[in-house]
Write a structure and sequence with these properties.
5 helices, about 0% strand, mainly alpha
Length: about 180
């Protein structure tokens, strides 16, 4: 469930709300890379602080840790958890924007590298050596060693024709 901006303003102090307000669009889109990195660090620190408080209160409730200040500790960590969620959502927005900024920078660097490589290739001298005084014949064919054993196609028909002629002679002799 999302939290409205009015709920965020109600939950946070003024000095805490100002960076969280910068994590909303369109203000987030106007931040530079360094400002965005600083905002992410600050939000991560605040989320960690409230996460630690929640974990400590749960350990106190289970009897695993001693209470830091028994008079100031309320029995529930509901308000602290709501603050932590505000910072977590702000951090999620800021991280997403930072990822897109870093991806844009990486894409621009890759494009610049590719353009530089293409320019180097275009400026490189073309290597087409001359053929010399006489052009050579190119690749020489390799004789197939299996080709010598195969009967020529022209002789196949003549052999069968010779067999027919010989058979006709024999047949003619037997009749007479």
């Amino acid at each position: 469930m999302s939290t409205s901006i009015a709920d965020e303003r109600r939950l946070l102090a003024a000095e805490e709300y100002e960076p969280v307000a910068r994590s909303h669009y369109p203000a987030l889109a106007g931040l530079g890379r360094d400002e965005l990195m600083e905002l992410v660090r600050w939000l991560r620190e605040r989320r960690g602080k409230f996460r630690g408080q929640i974990e400590h209160r749960r350990r106190v409730r289970r009897g695993k840790a001693d209470a830091r200040n028994t008079a100031a500790e309320p029995p529930s960590e509901r308000g602290v958890a709501a603050k932590k969620q505000v910072f977590a959502r702000a951090l999620k927005r800021a991280n997403a924007r930072l990822d897109s900024v870093l991806a844009d920078e990486k894409r621009a660097a890759m494009r610049a590298g590719m353009h530089a490589a293409l320019e180097r290739k275009r400026r490189a001298p073309v290597h087409h050596p001359p053929s010399g005084r006489r052009a050579r014949g190119g690749a020489q064919p390799i004789e197939n060693p299996k080709g010598a054993d195969i009967v020529q196609p022209a002789t196949v028909g003549s052999i069968s024709q010779a067999g027919r002629v010989a058979q006709a002679r024999r047949d003619k002799r037997e009749k007479t």
